[in-house]
Structures are given as structure tokens and as C-alpha cells.
Amino acid sequence: MSNCPAHQLTRPLPFIAISFTRDELLSYNDISLHPTSCTTATLRKFRLLCKGVSCFHHYRGRKSGKHHPHPSTSSHSKDGRSLTPATRVCHPQASRGRPFFQRHSLPITKKANFGLLNIRSVNNKIDDLCNLWTDKGVDILLLTETWHDVDSVFFKRLLSLGFAVVDQPRPRARQESLSCNHGGVAILAVPGFRLKPLKMNVSPTTFEFVGGRITFGSYNCSIVVIYRTGVITNTFFSEFSDLLDRISVMNEDVVVAGDFNIRLEKLEEANTKTFGNILNDHGFIQCVNQPTHEKGGILDAVAIRSTSPVLAIEIIDTGLSDHFLIRWSSSMTRPPPIYKTSQRRSWKSFNLDEFIVKLQNSSLTSGVVQDLDDAVAIYNTELFTILDRLLPLKFSRLRQRPSDPWFDDECRQVKKKTRRLERTATKTLKANDVSRWKDQLRVYRKILRQKREGYWRKKLETERQSSSRALWTSLNSIMGRGRVPINNSINADKFLQYFQTKIKNVRDSTALCQPPSFSDGSIATSSFDEFLPTSPAEVIRLIHSLPNKQCSLDPIPTWLLKKVAPILAPFLANLFNKSLAEGKLPQTFKMAHITPVLKKPNLDISDTSSYRPISNLSVISKLLERLVHVRITNHLNNNNLFPLNQSAYRRSHSTETAVLKVFSDALSAADNGKLTLLVLLDLSAAFDTVDHSILLQRLGSYFGLGGSTIKWFDSYLNGRSYQVRINNCTSSISSLTCGVPQGSVLGPTLFSMYITELEQIILTHGLQAHFYADDTQIYGHCEPHKVMELSLLVSACVDDVSRWMCSNRLQLNSSKSEVIWLSTCRRRHQRPAAPIRLGMDWISPSDSVRNLGTFFDADLSMSAHVSYVTRTCFLVMRNIKTVAASLPAPALKLLLTSLVLSRLDYCNSALVGLPKSLTRRLQSVINASARLVTGKRRHDHITPILQDLQWLKVDKRISLKLVQLVFKCLHQMAPSYLAREIKFLSDIQNRKGLRSSTSSSLYVPPTHLKSAGDRSFTVAGPRLWNHLPTNIKTASSLAQFNVLIKAHLHQME
Q1: Which residues pair with 216 in a beta bridge?
Q2: Are β-strands 818-822 and 841-843 bridged in parallel, bridged antiparallel, or unpaired?
Q3: What is the largest CA-CA distance in the chain?
Q4: For residue 327, with 0-12 CB atoms within 10 Å meaning exposed, 13-18 middle and 19 or more buried, which class applies?
Q5: Is the model more confident about 138 or about 80?
Q6: At 585, which helix (H) or strand (E)?
Q7: Which residues of 503-659 form beta strands (DSSP E)?
């Protein structure tokens, strides 16, 4: 007792945020004599008590030194939150005479708050809405008049921060516009809540709405947000009643809220009575009885149907719009805060010279490798040991919350002044006080905007001059393109079980199929029995070609590996040579860490099927795979073993060349009066279900691998394992018994070798095929009177393909495959509409299909593709426009070039010869992008702007792509299936005697239709080439050709 002042013991207990049990209080007198007689927790409580730490109520305004009533007489705050002693917070900073607020120390029993606000545009108001969540205590926010578009930058940034979003933008009447989109509704929830879209299968025409189901623990609540504008009609009341009919059957709490634009304070008006009667008939209570607009009137409504009593509604003027915030509490408890535990090294204090000295003194410089697994263990242990000495791992536990790096002391001072004026205005309700507060609020928002824009301008300008990777990281952060956090309710083992079940289902469906047979002889002209050894110089070159990515299995980051590559290269070269010679892969290299990544931002984050697995492998294992890939690719190329029409993961091949080949063949057939039947096959989890034994037999029997090479691939495929990692939590380890390793260097090439027999099966039916990995295209041509024969032929071909896939343990998903007839619009009436049998399913021909990112329409007009590209580009530009003020001009130009013009240029070689009505729409994308970069007005002449930016117009960009492909075809830099279509005039038999046969001109085949034959690559490419000046056609390299052709096209404009 002598160690504790008397005045501290007589202080009322409710002031202190410490709870004591009866036994703890009775044992207090014995603590000084027998301190070991109580628990550590009890001792800690009494130490805090004896230090005289002041405590405060958690809500704003309760300061140290003020009189606090006893909890028995005052147990609730103004907003209905419990103020029992458990909700008070104790902190050492309290003794300094200022309040301290820790939301994370509040108990989980705190009630969640809802809020409704007509925001009048969410763009550039993310800081203001964050203040609503932190200062106003709103957990679930219902917004009307969001003025947002699909894929909004604002909502993507919230998703990347862990917020839950369900939104519904107003459909645009004109997609090709950068104007503001009015209307729109959304539901936002802070991290911890589960928010899923609520589907009600209604399509009202008189109002906009969005529905969601909010869940936390065992509590569910359905929410519908409505925005209505325009004249009130009986149709609105009818559609509104139908909507309530659907949600009234839900056995849970339901909230219907929004901006109805009905004067609900005028109780005698017919519209108000009708609206109230509809709510009463469905069991809802309209809770708002105060004005919700700054000019008076109740325009916003909150109707609740709940088994628990409805708490008080608060009307709060936020100054963000002419509508007030409506806040109310619910019976739902608030989720606890989310913490992220991580361990990392502080690289700011890293000394590279010291690291190099220790590395040179380690055993890694000896270069001697006795055992593969021991050598890998030594490599990892030595590097980990050196780093642990220089930069020991530090554990941190941080609460996930939005943070603004531009929010400095000036912002804090202005915010403090704004909040003080807000409290004064709320207390006095005088017009002068309210006016001063709103003026100060505008100043505060202006400072925030200036600070944010200045911060990003300076940061992006610095990164643009130093690191392109850092620049794109910042640009993705601005655009909200970061990864959406994984839902905490799904653990790593649940993901592992989902991935295993998905593969098992496919494997079980093919388990009874007859395995394939293999011939004894190889078609390879030479066998491949051993790998060529590597050298330290090759290892250094490959290390520097690695991207700056790393895996948790790596002892050092890739950027550091590049800096010390000359020191580690001898050791790694010996390690790799031993692996290649013995035909063995170290067991450590067979381990993969799987990270689930959300497929699309708008998918349900609580559903495991919304995620795709991303595999991370050790950088050193990928380095070894690169060495093997170089050698196996050389073997395939030297023996012509690659399938001719396989465009995936091959030099000079791409999706664009694959699309151009198929589309050009269809145009040539249409020029000759034929119809083309195109079938796009879909495979289920193709890469993950490759059978290892079949693949190894095919590598030996078909591709000529033997000796240590086939032994190495056997070791590479078998004995692999993986585990799922989520936020430093890992699942159990699972064996990988089938499939090529995801995320590996060799995986795509091995899959292409696995399905190489498919091409021959399709060719035996007289059809043509083209592949891009597992994307398979089958097509054939016929006269109009033979369409039935072609349909039957395709069905028989698909049957053989399906049987081959089944015997090779792959599954053809015929129900998701697509069919389309291609011809000119003149033969539209000759295209059959009857469905075609693909396997066990009958598939009806489509009007348009998506093929490798390009839309084919039945008329070969590319109008569907042009519409998609312009709509997508303007959507991206509208999102960029919302953040354009924060970007310097070079960064803005880079962003538009990468995200907009790249979409415009993709597969534009198939757009040659389009009518001006379509190219004009594409040109509008370039014009809008140029004006956005330069800040010019719509009426300013566009040609000088494009010349300043060095941007070509659409027709010139198409011509550029075509002549670049022709140049590549002439210099063995293009796929053989395109290069063989380009011929010199001197190569044509009946042209050898002409003077033109000695020139560099190309042969242009004769055509019948400008809308078909003239647009094919075999005609349009040579025709453009023949009009080029001689100095351009005789360029010695592709780089020189690009410089000359771009200058030539700019001069033509």
C-alpha cells in the first residue's frame, strides 16, 4: 500500500478502463507482500491503476479532467452506443491533457451504423467519404446519384483497400463520350462485412436501384437503394410495389432507402399517401421525419422492416452535397478491425558492399557441388544467414486502414479548424456559423485536392525518370488496379480443397477412357539424349533477363541477385550442369506457393470459385528452366517438330498473327463466294489435367527425347508439391500428380507438345486448324449448297477430337464452345441457322464470337469489334479523366498510350478496308485521348494536336501494322503460315519475263470484292508495300524500318 498514493486509490473506478473481478479486488492487499500470488494480468492491471493513467470515453468531446457520470446513471451516448466501462479506453497520452481515441480497442459489441447520402458524384470525393467512415462512424453507406461509370476508378480503389462494393451505374445513352454520367446507386461497407449482390429479376423503367445482402456473423440484412427522378407516374408506384413484393418474402431485416424525390413532409398530397400506403402494406416503417435537403423538404426516405426496435434517425449536414446524411444504428454488431501480420527486412539501411564482402567469404564462391539437394540447401542457408546478420527479419502487426501519404501537418491543422467550426455550427444552428463552417470545408477540400495532386505529380515525375516499374506501380495505385484483398472467412485449406476438387472432377470424367497408343519410331531427324552444359557467362546473361519478381521461397530478392550475379554465377553454373547431367531436379525446386487472385473486381470475394490460382516458383528454379527451354526449343526448331499452326509461346508468333491468319482465310473464301464455318473449342482446366506418363511417352516417341533429357523431365514432372499461401498463412502441403507446373517456364511449351497430334487429326478431315495454347479453332470453307455437308464434317471432326482428348485425360467442354458462319453480307441469306452438333451438345450459330480478344461478326464487317473497342476505350478514358488532374502530362500520355491506344492497335491489321463510318468511330478515340493529354477543347483542330504528340491517325496506324508484318515476313521474323503468303513478283512463273520481276515489288493476287478479297492480308499487305519508297523497303533492320516508315506516314498526313 505504501507504493500507491492514497488519492489514486480513492479515484472512482469508472474513470479507469480496467475491469477487476471480485477475487482480484479482495487480493489487492496481499499483492505487495506476495506478488507471485496473483496472475500476470492482474499485476498489470494494478500497475496501471497505481500509475494514475487517465481514461476517456471513446466518443468525441470527453476530455481529461471533466466530470464523468457514473455508468449506472449514464450508459449510452447520443448515437446509442454503449458507454459501459468496457468501452472506455486507457492510453498514456491521456495524461498530456488531450483526448485519445483508439477504435480498435473498442469491443465487438459496438453496433454498426448505416448511412444514406445523395452524394452528387463520388469522383474526387474519396477523402470526404473516408471522413464519413472515420468521423461520422458510418459502417454501411448507401449512396445515390453517384455519377459513376462501369469499372469506376473510385470503387476499384475502395476494393483494393478491402471495402465491399455493390454498385449499379446508370446505362449510358451514348458510350462514345467523356461527359459525366448522372444517376447511379451503390452500397459500400467497411472491411469485415460481407456484402453480396441481391438479385431480384426486375427491370424497372422509372427508377434506378441496387440490392445487396450485408452479413456479419449470424446477422443478415437485405438492402435496396433507390434513386428516382422525373415526373411521378402510376408506373412508378406499380414498379415500386412489384419490387417490394419480391423483397417482402425475405425472412430477415430489410432496408429500403434512397432519394425518391417525393415531398414526404406534405402528408396530404396524393403521391405521399400512395407512397406511404405501399410501404405500410408491405410491413415497412418510414423513419425519416426531418428535412433531408438544404432547401427544406423530405426527399430521402429510409423504410425498415425489422424484428428489433428501430433506433433514432440522425440528420447530419456533411457539406458534400445539397442533401443531408441520414444515419441510423442497427442491431448488427460491428466487425473487429483487420490486422495484417508480416515479417520483412528494412532495406533502407542495406549496405551492398558489406553484403558482397560476406558473400565472397562464404562457401558459395568455391563452386564445388557434390549433391544437388545439399547444394541448394547450402545456397539458401548461406544467403539467409548473411541477410539475417545484416538485416534481421522484423515482425510487424499493422491495422489495415486507408492511408494518405499527402496528408501532412497543414492538412491536419485545417481539418482540426474545420471540425471545430462544424461542432459550433451543429451546436448553435446559426446561419453565420453554418456559413463559416461550409466556407472552411471548401477550403479544406481544396487543400486536400492540391496536396493529393501535387504529391502524385512529383512522385510520378521522379519515377518516370528513374524506374518504369515504380512508375507503373504508382499508376496502378491511382487507377485502383491493385489486387482485391482475399476474404478473411476463406482460409488457405479451403482454397486448397477447392483447387483439388476442380482438377479431380475433370480427371474422374476421363478415368474410363482408353489410353493412347504410341509408335516406336520418332519423327525427329536427330535424337536429344543430353543437354549441352552451361557456363557462368550464360547464367549471368539469363539472370539479368529475369523480371524483378520473387517468391517467398527465394533467400534474396531478384534485384539483389542481379547485382551479385558475377559472384554466384560459377556456383549456379556447376549446380545446373550437375542437374542436367544427372537428369535430376532438386526437390526444393519442385515446391510451389499458390496465391489465389480474384478474377474480376466485381465478383463475390467470399466465393472460392471467384479466384484463380497463381503459382509462384523459386527464381533459381526458373533460371534452370530457362536453360532447358533454350535447348529444347532449339531441338524442336531444328527438327521442325513444332506444330505449324501453334502460335502460343513461340518467337515471332502472337495472338494477333493467329487471328489475322484465320480472318484472312475467311475473307479469301468469301471473295470466292464461299462460306466459312468457324468452331471455337473450350477445354476445362487443360493445363492442370495433363497426364505425366502420357506426356513423357510422347516426349520420347514423338519428339526424340532420351537418355538424361527424358530422365530430367521425368524428375521435373514427378514429385512436385504445392501449398496455398494467404496473408502469411499456409495450407497443408499437397502433391501435384498431374498437369504441367503453373507459373513455370517450361509448362506452356510442354502443353503445346502434349497436344501436337490434334492438328493432324483435324487435317485428316479436310479442315483447317489453328491453336493458341488450349484455344483451338477449327474452320472449313464450302459452297453455299454444301453447308450441310460441312456441318456434318465438322461434327465428325469434333467427335474425333473429343475422343482423343478423353484418351489423353483432357476434357472438351462442348457446351461452352461456339460456332459461327462467316460470309459477306450479300450471302447472309445463305447462312444456315440450324444448330450444329458438337459432341453431345447442339450449338446454335452465333452472330458474333470473341476469338483471342477480337470479335468476329457473321458479315466479316468487324463492326462488333469496333463497337467493343470504342466502348471500352471511352470507358477507360472516363476513368483516367477522373484522376487526370493528379498526373503530369508525360505520365498521362503514357497511361493513355498503354491503356487506350494499345487496345485500339490490337489486331488492327484485320481492320484494313473498313468503311469510313467505322474508322471514324475509332478516330474519335484518338482525338479524345489527344485532347485529354493536351487539355485542348473539343472545337480545336485535331491535326496539329496529333502532330505535336506524334500520333498517327487510324488509317495510318493500320497501314503501319500491315507493312511491319510484311517486312517481318520477308526477313524470317514472322510465322511461316503468314510468310508463305507473301511472294515477290519474280517468284511467280508467268511474271518472270516482265520488267517488274526484277524489282522489290510483291505479288498482289487478283480479287473480286473490295469488301472481302481486298481486305485479306495476302492482298492488302503487298499492295501497301508496293507503294512504299525504295529506301524504306530496303531497310537493313526492323528498327531502321520502323523509323523510316513512321516518318513517311507522318509526312503523308
Answers
A1: 219
A2: unpaired
A3: 120
A4: buried
A5: 138
A6: none
A7: 591-598, 611-616
Bridge partners of residue 325, in order along the sequence: 316
Is the C-alpha dihedral spanning 890, 959, 779, 638 positive or negative? Answer: negative
CA distance 176 to 950: 23
Residue 883 CA, distance from chain mean position: 19
Split at pLDDT 50, 70, 90, the class of 324 is very high
Return the number of other C-beta atoms located less than 10 Å from residue 133's C-beta.
20
Residues 57 and 83 sit within 8 Å (Cβ to Cβ): yes
CA atoms of 1017 and 963, how far apart (whole Å): 10
Residue 67: phi, psi to the nearest 5?
-75, 130
The identity of residue 153, as a single letter, is V
- H or E element in which residue 962 lies: helix 954-970
Query: Nearest to residue 1007, comparing CAs of 681, 673, 558, 725?
Result: 673
Q: Burial, 390: exposed, middle or buried (Cβ in 10 Å; 0-12, 13-18, 19+)?
A: middle
pLDDT for the residue numbered 474: 79
Partnered with residue 837 across adjacent β-strands are 842
Radius of gyration from C-alpha coordinates of the chain: 35
Report the distance separating Cα 1040 and Cα 285, nearest Å: 75
**For residue 110, what is the DSSP state?**
P
**Residue 522 half-sphere exposure toward CB, CA atoms < 13 A:** 19
Q: Are 572 and 369 in contact (CB under 8 A)?
A: no
Residues present in the chain in total: 1053
Q: What is the C-alpha separation between 740 and 754, in angstroms, rounded?
A: 10
pTM of the model: 0.78
Distant-in-sequence contacts of 384-393, Cβ < 8 A, 24+ apart: 384/555, 386/355, 386/358, 386/359, 386/362, 387/345, 387/355, 387/555, 387/556, 389/358, 390/350, 390/351, 390/354, 390/355, 390/358, 391/345, 391/346, 391/347, 391/349, 391/350, 392/345, 393/343, 393/344, 393/345
16-30, 115-129, 700-714, 742-756: least confident range: 16-30
Pairing of strands 89-90, 55-56: antiparallel
Looking at residue 522, its pLDDT comes to: 56
Cell, residue 764: 485428316
- Please provide the average confidence, as pLDDT, over all residues in the chain: 83
| Distance in angstroms (rounded) separating the CA atoms of residues 988 and 386 | 68
**DSSP state, residue 514:** P
Contacts of 1024 (CB under 8 A, 6+ apart): 959, 962, 963, 966
Is residue 1010 over pLDDT 70? yes
Angle between helices 431-466 and 409-428 (to 10 degrees): 160
Q: What residue type is assigned to position 315 of the chain?
A: I
- State yes or no: pLDDT of 614 exceeds 90: no
Cα gap 704→529, rounded to integer Å: 8
pLDDT band at 711 (very low <50, low <70, confident <90, very high): very high
Q: By mean pLDDT, which of 19-28, 741-750, 821-830, 836-845 is the weakest? A: 19-28
Alpha helices in 772-901 (DSSP H): 787-807, 863-883, 889-896
What type of residue sits at position 649? Answer: Y
Q: Which three cell numbers stand for residue 722?
A: 504445392
Look at residues 679, 860, 652, 865 and name the one whose alpha carbon lies nearest to residue 765. Answer: 679
pLDDT at 718 over 90: yes
C-alpha–C-alpha distance, residues 965 and 1003, integer Å: 15
Amino acid symbol at 494: K
Which residues does 464 contact at the CB level (< 8 Å), separation at least 6?
A: 471, 888, 890, 891, 894
Judge residue 217's burial from the number of C-beta atoms within 10 Å of its C-beta, 0-12 exposed, 13-18 middle, 19 or more buried: exposed
Can you read off the three cell numbers belonging to residue 564? Answer: 551479385
pLDDT at 5 over 80: no
The residue-averaged pLDDT of 451-470 equals: 79
pLDDT for the residue 996? 52
Picking from 266, 328, 259, 240, the residue whose alpha carbon sits closest to that of residue 300 is 259
Phi-psi sector, 191: left (phi>0), alpha (psi -120 to 50), beta: beta
Distance CA 293, CA 321 (A): 9
